[in-house]
Here is the input.
Amino acid sequence: MFRKVLISNRGEIAVRVIRACRDLGIAPVAVYSEADRRSWHVRLADEAQAIGPAPAPQSYLRVEQIIDAAKRCGADAIHPGYGFLSENPAMPRACEAAGIVFIGPSAESMEMMGSKTSARRTAIAAGAPVTPGTDRGVSGAAEAAEVAERFGYPAMIKAAAGGGGKGMRLVRTAADMAPAFREAQSEAINAFGDGEIYVEKYIERPRHIEVQVFGDRHGNLVHLGERECSIQRRHQKVVEECPSPFVDDQLRMRIGEAAVRIAGKAGYYNAGTMEFLMDAQHNFYFMEMNTRLQVEHPVTEIVTGLDLVRLQMQVAAGDPLPFTQEDVRWRGAAVECRIYAEDPDNNFFPSPGKITAYRTPDGPGVRLDSGVYEGWTVPIEYDPMIAKLVGYGENRAEAVARLRRALGEMTVGGIKTNIGFFLRLMQRGDFLAGDMDTGFIERMLAEERRTPGPAPDETEEKLAALAAAYHDSKQAASQPAAAAAPESRWKRAAREELLR
Ligand code: MV4
Here is the structure.
């Protein structure tokens, strides 16, 4: 196993990787930009290496600076976390040249799956279902219209290099194609320096369901089940859960096998995620692959009982996977919400600043992955996610009840957060019923604009539904419905005291 690992990332994911290092007896080394001198990941590590000014392009995105830092401290391996350089094939290449192990897939796998058209061709070669459409870029708007005509409108045109919804347009009729194509292509050239555009049939009200895959350097590949990630806002995931309430054991095996076949075609090793769209009839279509550890990996860890970051380091060190597909078991349910320093009342605008109070939840069925502390200032330069809060239990109702309880215990002062937004989301009937698709948040916000603040009796009704679901669950049958209790005035007074 490695002796020393450099973590080329920051915030909660750097903290998460440091924890896995500790558990394995590996010395963790942090890196930090000028904005991160006082950050929690720096304090938790054994050593820290400065890598440059606050803007990420001058620090966390600089391959040479990361490699230099690893050489300076004598690290055997680099863990990239997510974002930044994690999916950049220049990283595994630079690591190889420097004699350092990259904790992730090969540069070749990253390239094969990095382009969405190339990933689609890989999935087709693996015999996996993809959304009907082209597996190569089209020559222009005329060809795009031809293809759309063949598969039927509405169509989606997408940038092969795209991500985060950039370079993507929904095209409802033939007349809309030419302008949409021009927009998507110029957006793609601006954002990615690559104007390749391909066409897909539009899947109405899809769910976003992704499959965790894992491979070692000996050709063994397994899937670790799916995550439901349909609750997103502007292509940013907000709530994720494992398992998906929409997927049964048989469907899990079918989508999991498809994911493993695709990964096999890509010669994939380490942690990866296959993203699928699923329609109301449970048809699933491969969409793209993320060649990294994902933000939402904790829900899979809880339900499978595995430590994915530890596994990443073991397979990167050359160990075979310590289990087979038949050994993988899923138990219970876990639901995660991403807590952001942002203002839901101001269009979710980032709210950086000094954290003047920080009280974290605890107790049965609660996990918090956080990278902040009281007195620290959330910098403006990076993604404003400050923590991930997970509730888990023997079933979804119990997991949600505990997550609601934990959200109610959490106090963050000095900055705005989306905690209150989650408390509202988690008492909605559609969420409690597991009834969601990618339009969930838009509908919720539109509804809230129509009726600001739910009628009190309606709230009570929903809380009662949650309590009933909690009571109905076999394992929880005799438990009190703690989550249904409204916030006491003592708790509110204590919170207000803390925030003064
Ligand atoms: C789609 C789709 C419907 N049909 N493709 C959005 C992000 C990008 N990676 C792919 N996206 C979509 N592709 C077809 N053929 C709907 C979306 C989509 C979406 C997908 C997942 C999660 C949230 C979404 C929100 C809007 C649209």
The pocket of MV4 is lined by residues 131, 156, 165, 168, 200-203, 206, 208, 232, 235, 277, 287, 438 (CB under 6 Å). Confidence is low (pLDDT under 50) at residues 474-484. The first strand starts at residue 4 and ends at 7.
